Amino acid sequence: MADKYLYGYLIGRDIQVDVINHRVIHFPKGKGTKIIRMLYLRDTMMRLLVFLLKNSNVRIISYNEIMMNVWEMYNLSSSNQRLWQVLHELENKLHSIGVMKGFFSKIEKKGISVNAGVLTTLYYIKI
């Protein structure tokens, strides 16, 4: 059997997260407007998004775990303030292209949960 590799994620039916190219793309479905919108995310913001999506099966992803895996493993300084700043900016960017508010839920003093019910993981196979 061929190995499968992470390509990205589908949020809902029309928002694709392209991990390799650091893009989030909104492909509208149905009739009406057909404007495709796209975001390009910087390294840290994309790492944060991917880490949250990869761990969406965990009920609550702890703040310490996020800071360790998104910042500290890359020799970057982390803090709660920096996490909140990047998360807030990420949420605003995602909302601007159609991701529903509340996709991420902040659980005070614990961590973040992701609405995994609208998430599909996308893989590719090298042939």
UniProtKB/TrEMBL annotation:
It comes from the Bacteria. This is OmpR/PhoB-type domain-containing protein.
